[in-house]
Amino acid sequence: MRHILALIVGSLLLTALAACNTVQGVGRDIESVGRAGKDAMH
């Protein structure tokens, strides 16, 4: 029972970590688009 619980908790932690990396990547993409638009206006 403890092994199954440990596997579930570990899987959830890895999923959360992957989601954080994905959100950071999207944030970087949006930031680079904003910079490109700003550079195009100047």
Unreliable sequence segments: none
SS field, number of helical segments? 1
Measured on Cα atoms, how large is the radius of gyration?
Answer: 18 Å
Average of the residue pLDDT scores = 82
The helix/strand class is mainly alpha
User: What overall form do the CA principal axes indicate?
Assistant: rod-shaped
Order of helices and strands: H
Oligomerization: single chain
Kindly estimate the percentage of residues that lie in beta strands according to DSSP. Answer: under 5%
Distance between the termini: 62 Å
Number of strands: 0
**Helix percentage:** over 70%
Largest sheet: none
In short:
It contains 1 helix and no strands.
Q: Would you mind describing this structure in some detail?
A:
With about 40 residues, the protein is an all-alpha fold. The protein has one helix at about 1-40. The longest helix is centred in the middle third of the chain and has 40 residues, at about 1-40. The termini are far apart.
